[in-house]
Amino acid sequence: MGAVITIVIVAIVVILAIALMVSYNRFVKQRNLIQESWRQIDVELHRRYDLIPNLVETVRAFAAHERHVFEEVARLRTQAVNVQTASPEQRAVAESELSGALRQMMISVEAYPQLQSNQNFLNLQRELTDTEDRIAAGRRFFNANVGDYNTRIDAFPSNLIANGFKFEKAGYFEVKDETVRAVPQVSFGTIGSVAGEQAPPQMQQGAHSSGQIQPELPGGDQGYQGNYPQVPQQGQPQPPYQGQPPVGGPPAAAPGPQDGQPPFTGS
Question: Is the pTM above the cut of 0.70?
Answer without folding.
Answer: no
